[in-house]
Design a protein that fits this description.
Blueprint lengths: L1 H31 L5 H13 L4 H14 L3 E2 L10 E19 L2 E12 L2 E7 L10 E12 L2 E6 L4 E4 L8 H4 L16 E18 L2 E12 L2 E7 L11 E12 L2 E6 L5 E3 L22 H5 L3 E14 L4 E5 L6 E2 L3 E2 L3 E2 L3 E11 L4 E6 L1 H8 L3 H5 L9 H11 L3 E11 L2 E10 L5 H12 L4
Parallel strand pairs: 1-2, 4-6, 10-12, 20-22
Antiparallel strand pairs: 2-3, 2-5, 3-4, 5-6, 5-7, 8-9, 8-11, 9-10, 11-12, 11-13, 14-19, 14-21, 15-16, 15-19, 17-18, 19-20, 21-22
Keywords: DNA-binding
InterPro entries: NA-bd_OB-fold (IPR012340), SOSS-B (IPR051231)
Protein name: Nucleic acid binding protein
């Protein structure tokens, strides 16, 4: 019995030593074959090692076996952040190389734009590429990451890039055509668009660009399907609020899921005359948007200019009287800013509330002006409630008492971050016009309930 136990102990120690020895190779194979289950890789590896196949040969055999089964061919527009182990058949629309610091070493990487029948997307390659603009290629075992708020294809050292027959994809002149789109169809996968839209808001702003003071134009464009913010980095002669413009090949940037249109000196922009046929009424596109269900915004990456109505079910901590840094405007505690140290804080007010309409709930942020409207007390009036305690918590507790359960409407923008969806409010009101409709639906839902 003792001999059997000794042999079992020796066997277990040997297996553990083998596991430690082969673990790095299993990890490498798992990265290379990102879409293959780890247990399948381990079983194949163990079998080959038992037949005394050299480790390097075993790895080549496993990679060849699983890759021969083929990676899923995806379209660019189908890609989402975090995907791995797929293939693309695309043309190179743009490619360039640059040298970067990677873990203290100077490394050459390649970047550019890929195109297929479904759309365009940027890419970065960490392996050497001998490719030219116009080449048709199959990229296998690629992955997708979030880079500057949009999807980007990442080509690693474990990816394969093979030249395809030139006739396997449409000509580059066809793939490079920038589509004419309605705003409702513009999303994170769009790099450039062409469209016709009305300017419903416009203002000038001075910005510092690499030490140079530059005046840019910002505003809002609208068509019959929606609204999007825009920035023009060059003058727009003869353009004002109410103008209809046609633009081509404008770049699209995305921030927290919300696209914005960027015009520069290379973007053709022309005024649309009153005699031209339009797909929308210039007067109607400036009407306030109709309310949408909260569930709709929860499923979107971000929506620009949207209206929600619902009940306040919670007033969140962090609401009430706050102090801000006079330099960066961050909320500070005990007159200490995490970026600028000890400062003389500026008094402010805000409300963070949860709005619910029965289809979902979303965090809504109100600034001082809107908080004073909803709460019914100004910043200075709120200080009078502090009394002798001088406790900021007194205002927070009073806000919860006054606001919880109240029915309100809000208009603003939604954005998605790692913390979820947030609604940044531009205006707020009490929607009294739909009271009868709400009562009717409530009674209908209660019909038959004892």
């Amino acid at each position: 019995m003792e001999e059997m136990l000794r042999l079992c102990t020796v066997s277990l120690k040997w297996e553990n030593m083998m596991d430690e020895k082969y673990a790095p190779h299993i990890e490498e194979l798992t990265k290379v074959l990102a879409n293959v289950d780890r247990s399948m890789i381990e079983n194949e590896f163990d079998l080959l090692i038992k037949y005394r196949v050299p480790i390097s040969e075993a790895k080549r055999t496993i990679i060849k076996k699983f890759r021969s089964s083929g990676f899923m061919i995806r379209g660019i527009k189908e890609l989402s952040v975090g995907e791995k182990g797929f293939s693309l058949e695309v043309r190179i629309l743009k490619i360039s190389e640059k040298t970067v610091d990677l873990k203290g070493e100077r490394t050459i990487i390649f970047s550019g734009i890929l195109a297929d029948r479904s759309g365009l997307c940027p890419f970065t390659s960490w392996k050497q590429l001998a490719l030219n603009v116009g080449d048709a290629v199959r990229i296998s075992n690629a992955s997708v990451r979030n880079w500057y708020n949009r999807t980007e294809v990442s080509i690693s050292a474990y990816s394969e890039v093979l030249l395809l027959d030139d006739s396997s994809l449409p000509d580059i002149s066809e793939l490079a055509v920038i589509p004419v789109k309605k705003f409702i169809d513009v999303g994170p996968s769009d790099l450039f668009i062409s469209s016709v839209a009305a300017i419903i808001d416009l203002y000038h702003r001075n910005v510092d660009v690499k030490g140079e003071d530059l005046t840019i134009i910002e505003g809002v464009l609208a068509d019959e399907t929606g609204r999007l913010p825009f920035v023009s980095w060059s003058p727009l002669d003869g353009v004002d609020i109410g103008s209809i413009i046609r633009f081509k090949d404008a770049s699209v940037r995305v921030y927290r899921g919300v696209p914005s249109i960027h015009l520069d000196s290379s973007t053709p922009v022309e005024l649309v005359g009153p005699g031209e046929d339009l797909s929308f009424d210039p007067m109607s596109v400036n009407k306030p948007p109709e309310p949408v269900c909260i569930s709709e915004v929860l499923h979107a990456d971000g929506i620009f200019d949207v209206v929600l109505v619902g009940n306040i079910v919670s007033v969140r901590p962090g609401s009430g009287l706050i102090a801000r840094c006079p330099i960066c405007n961050r909320v500070i505690l005990k007159n200490v800013c995490r970026s600028h140290g000890a400062v003389d804080g500026l008094q402010d007010m805000r409300i963070k509330l949860v709005l619910d309409d029965g289809t979902g709930s979303v965090l809504v942020m109100l600034n001082r002006e809107l908080s004073e409207i909803v709460y019914g007390k100004t910043l200075h009036e709120s200080f009078s409630l502090l009394g002798k305690t001088m406790s900021m918590n007194a205002i927070f507790e009073d806000m919860k008492r006054v606001l919880t359960g109240r029915y309100i409407g809000v208009r603003g923008n939604t954005s998605r971050s790692e913390f979820g969806v947030t609604f940044v409010t531009k205006s707020v009101w009490v929607p009294d016009h739909d009271a009868e409709k709400r009562i009717y639906h409530l009674l209908k839902r209660l019909d038959g309930v004892e």
